[in-house]
Amino acid sequence: MILLSTLKFAASVSILLAVAAGIVYYTTFRNPARAAGNLLEQSIRAITSLKSVYMVFAIRTSAKENFESIDPSAGFISFKVWKTFGDEPRWKIEKPGRSIIMDGQSQYLINETGGYILQGSSGAGFAGWMKIFLEPTRILESELSYAKSNPSSCTVKEINNMLEMTVKSIAQGDFTNSWALNASIPQANTRRVYSFDKTTHMLKAVSVFIVSPTEDICVLKLQEISIDPPLPDSLFRFSNPTRKPVLTLQEWDKAMSAGIKEINPEEAVRIFFMACRKNEWTTVQRFSPLFVVPGGHMLKIIQEEYGGSDLLQLGPSFSSGMYPGVFVPYLIRTKTGDTISGNLAIRNDNQYHTWNIDGGY
Fold first, then answer.
1. 194 partner at 20 to 30 Å CA-CA among 118, 127, 220, 327?
2. Do 328 and 277 fall within a single domain?
3. DSSP per residue over 347-358, as a string?
4. pLDDT (tens digit, 9 = 90+) per residue, 225-278?
5. 50, 51, 69, 238 from 87: Cα distances, Å
6. What was the pLDDT predicted at 306?
7. Among 84, 111, 119, residue whose Cα is nearest residue 246
8. 31 by DSSP, 3-state: which?
9. Closest CA to 148 of 42, 37, 45
């Protein structure tokens, strides 16, 4: 349940491409990167005519995780994306248990299992790397830049009347400790495969694979794409019929100011678990605004899982991948006698430098 809001989706996917097939075909074998560049440059110019798009992806992840998270060992779950273009673009992203609506002015992150709604500006980072699907030009420019600076990483070829572009990317971040390796697409060694119809120049398929010494693992695939479908206004209209508590980012920021600071991460985690053992929930609430949301479920989850537990072991913190905080290993015994181990994700990169627990519990 780690919130890696600063991640950038390097394994990006273009939405609709118009391909200069002749240019690509004749230059591929002489310079694959130049061929890919021509392919993408034509696409950037052609994509401006889009009015709307609907996409369905299958991604290996857990339903309880955030949009940027992947899990190569998990099964596929469905992601749906709707987007309108124009002077006031609107969009919606949906996965089981979680959705984001951007109505043109604000974003609303709706968490069914957490029982809360986060409200932010139109540019809020709720979608994580999934937002790259909503910005075609940025996707294409990213791939174009990578193709031109890494000639050996990109190939374009014709197969069965299809044009196929493959881009390879290495994991981003520091993996001295490999804990976060493959936790998201940017933090994985990937092979991204795009297929286009040679005649219509339309994108037909996208797959992203994690490269492995034994067998590459597909973690993302485009299952359906519909160009310029009619999308009703109601799709992008936020409503709250079940009256879930709404936490604005301004309220989030205010809650962060009441956090714990000026101690090391290990001590912060120790205080967290000691408060759980003593059922001191006011102290626990200082570790995340999500624990403060009136009527929210997150604090209840902590209370049920860790209330009355004993902290048995605490390891030294470590960094991994692109996460802007650290991970602290822990071992606890719950009040039912079960032992639980994990790595608590904790960060203090907010303006108050207070410790905030992102996940790992």
1. 127
2. yes
3. E--STT---EEE
4. 898 899 999 999 999 988 889 999 999 988 999 999 999 999 999 999 999 999
5. 12, 11, 31, 19
6. 95
7. 119
8. coil
9. 37
Structural domains in the chain (count) = 2
Tokens standing for residue 294: 């009136």
Among residues 199, 184, 195, 198, the alpha carbon closest in space to that of 225 is found at 195
Between the two ends of the chain, the Cα-to-Cα distance in Å is 8
- What burial class does residue 13 get, using C-beta atoms within 10 Å of its C-beta: 0-12 exposed, 13-18 middle, 19+ buried? buried
pLDDT of residue 20: 30
Residues 6+ apart with CB under 8 A from 161: 197, 198, 199
Q: How does DSSP assign 258-298, residue by residue?
A: TS--SS-HHHHHHHHHHHHHTT-HHHHGGG-GGGTSTT-SH
CB 242 within 8 A of CB 290: no
Instruction: Check which CATH number belongs to the domain holding 108 and give it.
Output: 2.50.20.10
Q: Is residue 73 in a domain?
A: yes
Whole-prediction pTM value?
0.84
pLDDT in tens, 198-236: 776 667 888 999 998 899 999 999 999 898 899 999 999
CATH number of the CATH domain containing 345 = 3.10.450
Q: What percentage of the chain carries pLDDT values higher than 90?
A: 53
DSSP state letter for 170: P
Phi, psi of 252 (to 5 degrees): -60, -50
Residue 100 lies in a domain: yes
**Residues of 128-158 as b/e, b for ≥16 C-beta within 10 angstroms?**
bbbbbbbbbeebbebbbebbeeeeebbbbee
